[in-house]
Amino acid sequence: MAMRAAKDEKLHVPDDLRDFLLEKAALYERPDFIPDDPIAVPHRFSDKADIELAGFIAATLAWGQRKTILASAGAFMDRLDGAPGDFMKHATADDIRTAAKGFVHRTFQPRDAELFLHALQALTHAYGGLESAFVPDGTNHDAEACLTAFHARFFEAAAQRGYAADRTRKHVATPARGSAAKRLNMFLRWMVRPSRRGVDFGIWNQIAPSQLMVPLDVHTGNVGRKLGLLDRKQNDWKAVELLTAALREVDPDDPVRLDFALFGLGAIEQF
Fold first, then answer.
1. Quick check: pTM over 0.70?
2. Cα–Cα distances in angstroms (integers) from residue 38 to residues 71, 154, 186, in the given order
3. At CA 266, angle to CA 240 and CA 51, rounded to 5?
């Protein structure tokens, strides 16, 4: 178990725990798990624009049962004619309204879908793709800065199209409000981490893997606490910072690859 000598001191991760986490990460980061994971949706595509748009939509809808998530995200792709990048280039307001009409996933309603499509279209037109829409001005490209910048730009783009954030704001998290932003951190992991094991894509290069933050959910949080990597009870942004800092003690260059270990231990092994 990891130990912190004093409240403000750096966490010490013992060698046996380090080896255990690396072993589990290697076990669960493999393509066999893709078909049952939301990342299966962007894996249908090979073009960068298709991958990032499909990934963003799949990550946004990634709450609830996995079977339902995959069905909803797949249905959304069908509404975009199976070509999200091309849809964003050429869709009219009527096309967007038609694509959004009747789409429901839990609390994500047609009005949310319409706002999302308008905002994503505006951002892809303005920034040439979603990657640059996430990257803040200046030199600080860590995940917190990226998520904060994207949140502001997303709703500014929606407002320019005449859509008020109101109820849709809850579907795009931001660390500025203390949210763990699990789904957006998961999306960044998909886009940024190298594809050498055939799971994540590694198609973005303006953000480094070392700057990513762990996608914190019930499973990763509980396992982190059991292993002594996290001593905060809430699953909020502060907990994300603490757990990611602990994972950086194991792998400073790619801490979020250990997300595979934590999630696999919690969701699959019932650790």
1. yes
2. 10, 22, 10
3. 65
